[in-house]
Amino acid sequence: MRNLGKADVAIIGGSGLETLLEGTEQIRVGTPYGLPPPISIGEVGGKSVAFLPRHSVHHSIPPHKVNYRANIYALFEIDVKRIVATNAVGAVNVDFKPGDLVVPHDLVDFTKFRQPTFYDDAPVTHVDMSQPFCPEVRALLIKTMKKRNVRVWDKAVLVCTEGPRFETPAEIEMFRRLGCDLVGMTAAPEAVLARELEMCYATVCFVSNMAAGIQQQLTAHEVAEVAKEKIPVIQQILRETIEHLPQSRQCPCAHALKNARFEVK
Ligand code: HPA
Fold it and tell me: Model-level pTM?
């Protein structure tokens, strides 16, 4: 039986994805950090799953104004242990093309003004980000996609910029030289905050465009178009991945706070 108002797994993404959930109810969850968008809770493959529309209803909150702390804390409050996100990205590495699906393995945070942590006070807490995306959830996403013959890039370095503007060609060239493959505006500090609360976090990125300077001009319209086009395949992958997630977690995310606290002896 479903525990009302609680969920094991959460999906964070753009609106449209929530039709994946069955028997949905909408809830509001207050947090010490503010009020996140309405969260839908329903069932996917026998599991209780929450859906949080990152940019709220009607895509009204830009990436730099998303209250990442409220969003992640709300999911923590309703008992979520694993988060599977989706992010629109531009391709910095020219091997990647619009329409491609990617499960990145590493993250570079180039955001500027966001609240990056839950740990502003003592005890001083440094979580390990040696594997910023949950290796267990990543592996299952990739395995599911390969089993279904969905083409997937199973490694990539994602850089997150502040937005809401797109980057300049010089910025993209800098990111390329630094070894970044993809650029987006929402994975940081989302992935970090999840780790700080010992929640797993992995993302399926869809490439909506080649990054600035690689293609002539960038439009929000093309990002929205590719997002819409990719909804069915992403829903299928998320459904099957969530269904096969094992009950217990063997990943480092589950113990992220162990040895993370700075103790003065
Ligand atoms: N840059 C940053 N974020 C993005 C892009 C981009 O080119 N495309 C989709 N999200």
Answer: 0.97
